[in-house]
Amino acid sequence: MTRPLQPGNAALIVVDGINAFFSRSGSLHYPAVEATVDPIRALLDRARSRGDLVVHAVERHRRGFDDLEARRLPEHCPADSEDAAIFPAFAIAPGGREVELPKRRFSAFFGTDLALLLREQSTETVVLCGCKTNVCVRATAQDAFAWGYSVVVPEAATSSNRPHLAQASLEDIDRYMGRVVSLAEALELL
After folding, report:
1. In angstroms, rounded to a whole number, what is the distance separating the alpha carbons of residues 50 and 26?
2. Which residues participate in catalysis according to the annotation?
3. Which of 71, 84, 96, 110 could bond to 77 as cystine, CB 3.0-4.6 Å?
4. Range of the domain at 165
């Protein structure tokens, strides 16, 4: 059995917990994401009760500017849109240790100050949840590993509209970058 982390050693990173994916009217919504809402909320409740850092890494793009992602994907999540807002079930709790971290690429580390924030908070382990498993969660897991963090991904708290790619990504994460665990194990770890 893995020993629980001490309060403050872990950070929960909610990857793209935004309306675009989680709201039924969101432009990137897919039905499978709905199964992750309760597991993500359980992780948020646990991290908040311990006083752990919670990072809401949210997709945000600037209107009217060239953006490399727009060359590969349809324009999405403009910064001032309802799509780019945090999904209400994951809203930042007032007075806690939570931050909103806009990102313009798949990884929450690329072009952001996430690594600096985690180092300043003496974080050792990152627990990743959100969507999509095979894109933004995987990219964030890979960069977290490269920065020297222990990576934990609760399988029930991630999803993709491409299940076969999600499973392959989870296998890669578990084999090369960290640990893929059950929700119960992640809650116990936290």
Report:
1. 32
2. 136
3. 84
4. 10-189
Q: Would you state the structure tokens that stand for residue 165, as one six-digit string?
A: 């790619």
The pTM of this model reads: 0.91
Whether the CB-CB separation of 105 and 140 falls below 8 Å is answered with no
pLDDT tens digits, one per residue of 112-168: 999 999 999 999 999 999 999 999 999 999 999 999 999 999 999 999 999 999 999
The answer to whether position 89 is within a domain reads yes
Confidence of residue 14 (pLDDT cuts 50, 70, 90): very high
Number of structural domains found in the chain: 1
8 Å CB contact between 77 and 60: yes
Q: Which amino acid is at 1?
A: M
Asked if the model's pLDDT at residue 21 lies above 50, the reply is yes
| CATH classification of the domain holding 104 | 3.40.50.850
Tell me, rounded to whole angstroms, the distance of Cα 181 from its chain centroid. Answer: 15
**Residues 6 or more apart in contact with residue 45 via CB below 8 angstroms:** none
* 3, part of any domain: no
